[in-house]
From TrEMBL:
Stored PANTHER family: AMINE OXIDASE, AMINE OXIDASE [FLAVIN-CONTAINING] B
Residues that coordinate or bind FAD: 224
Cofactor(s) required, per the database record: FAD
InterPro entries on file: Amino_oxidase, FAD/NAD-bd_sf, Flavin_amine_oxidase, Flavin_MAO
EC number: 1.4.3.-
Pfam families (UniProt xref): Amino_oxidase
Species of provenance: Aspergillus oryzae
Keywords noted in UniProt: FAD, Flavoprotein, Oxidoreductase
Entry superkingdom: Eukaryota
Name recorded for this polypeptide: Amine oxidase
Enzyme class: oxidoreductase
Length: 431
């Protein structure tokens, strides 16, 4: 055996970066294996239109404890998008418009009804085992249907969630209830944490700051194809057929990529089933550069009823307007088809002229194979806690299997911190 690392961390997204940083800072020898030619995973600050944009995970919040701790530690601040008073919402076949207050007047009673039991179902949102697992069997669609809404009301409600939803049928309601419980039962609070505050300098800056404190050996462009635990140590085999040995492994990969990796011994059946059924979110984000100064607005359309389902003016750039768009179904529109993007935006604001677009297709990207994580019914309280337990010398981390904060950068970081702590304990015990 060439070298035996204390820990091999697989995947240099926010979960893997933090796990590798924490363990290497404790003096353990760590190798961080990453398939791409960059760190950050589903966070991706890149240059487009001559400026820096976030094509993946973006918004963070001071109520997200782990990320806020890291931002403070590295003296990085956050900033909001442009203030917008104008709202457009597609409901019952028509586009309606008004102030944001008008929109909230229509939405508030519906959303409050939808999440009325958030705190009682998740009294301790950080501890899902304290929650009834019945509610975890419900899909978003089951819950919406149970409210007996008119077509207009249902579209308002579905439109408000469209920035998080690919499929109301495949995504469970429990993750939404847990998130809302985490913001004291206030759904507006939850949506603010999910979709508002940008990191100064981008997620790239935060990832670089955390990496600068790490002494882990980073190996980019090193995709892993198998992980085998023989009880004494773990062998990680790369696609280039190189064997890397470590006492412990932290697998911090998107759940949709795990089917491509052979893991031995086999994982418990419910975990295999969760991996096999995949994270259902196949959504995308498109940044649009629109000609001239467009009045700031927010727009909402239910998933499946417009190729662009949530749009918001974020900022100005060289006399033009930058609009962030969420497409619930990435396959419903080609991001580089300016005509199609313009048509989808003109549904709300007829005078919009698209100058340029920027996007990343996370669904067809082999190293993500999907968007942000969202549990299918049953998995939040069922297979995910089981997957977070240690499996011999293999530990799992990543936002897709997080408890509180799943689907967010926060969830990724929490799982990274926890996996690092558990591995450090095992190493300290001489295992
Ligand atoms: C379009 C979009 C918008 C989002 N918006 C937000 C938001 O505003 N706020 C928010 O908090 N969250 C948002 N998210 C979610 C957030 O980005 C993710 O939850 C989080 O970044 C996931 O981190 P992770 O470390 O768990 O996984 P990842 O970031 O996916 O990291 C996993 C790493 O593993 C690597 N990898 C994959 N396969 C292999 C392999 N075989 N071998 C080696 N390496 C491999 C990948 O390249 C990647 O670097 C968004 C996500 C998307 C896609």
């Amino acid at each position: 055996m060439k070298e035996l690392f204390d820990v091999a961390v697989i995947g240099a997204g926010m979960a893997g970066i933090l796990a590798a940083r924490d363990l290497s800072q404790k003096g353990h020898s760590v190798v961080l294996l990453e398939g791409r030619d960059r760190v950050g995973g589903r966070t991706f600050t890149t240059e487009a239109f001559g400026t820096e944009l976030e094509l993946g995970g973006t918004y963070v919040h001071w109520t997200h404890p782990t990320i806020w701790h890291e931002l403070q530690r590295h003296d990085i601040s956050v900033f909001p998008p442009l203030d917008s008073e104008k709202a457009y919402w597609l409901a019952d076949g028509d586009v309606h418009s008004g102030t944001m207050n008008d929109y909230y007047e229509a939405l508030n009673p519906l959303m409050s009804h939808l999440v009325h039991d958030a705190r009682s179902q998740f009294p301790m949102p950080f501890n899902v085992s304290a929650s009834a697992n019945d509610v975890d069997q419900e899909s978003l669609e089951d819950r919406i249907v149970s409210l007996g809404l008119s077509a207009y009301e249902r579209d308002i409600l579905e439109g408000a969630m469209s920035g998080l939803v690919h499929s109301y049928r495949e995504q469970g309601v429990a993750q939404l209830l847990q998130g809302v419980s985490g913001t004291f039962g206030d759904y507006n609070g939850f949506f603010e944490t999910a979709s508002f505050w940008h990191i100064e300098g981008g997620t790239k800056r935060l990832a670089a700051a955390m990496m600068s404190e790490s002494t882990a050996t980073l190996r980019l462009q090193t995709p892993v194809q198998s992980i085998s635990d023989n009880g004494s140590f773990v062998t990680v085999t790369t696609r280039a057929d190189e064997d890397i040995h470590a006492r412990f492994v932290i697998t911090a990969l998107p759940i949709n990529t795990l089917d491509d990796i052979t893991i031995k011994p086999e994982l418990p059946a419910p975990v295999q089933s969760m991996i096999g059924s995949k994270n259902p979110v196949m959504a995308s984000k498109i940044y649009v550069r629109a000609k001239g100064t467009i009045e700031p607005f927010n727009a909402f359309a239910p998933a499946g009823k417009n190729p662009i389902n949530a749009a918001r003016v974020e900022s100005r750039y060289e006399g033009d307007t930058l609009i962030m768009c969420i497409c619930s179904d990435a396959a419903a529109i080609q991001a580089n088809d300016h005509e199609a993007v313009q048509e989808a935006l003109r549904k709300f604001v007829p005078e919009i002229e698209v100058v340029d677009t920027a996007s990343h297709d996370w669904g067809t990207d082999e190293f993500s194979q999907g968007g942000w994580g969202w549990y299918r019914p049953g998995n939040l309280t069922g297979a995910a806690p089981l997957m977070r337990q240690r499996h011999g010398r293999i530990f799992f981390a990543g936002s897709d299997i997080a408890s509180l904060g799943a689907g967010f950068i926060e969830g990724a970081m929490q799982t990274g911190v926890i996996a690092a702590r558990e591995v450090a304990t095992a190493l300290a015990n001489g295992e």
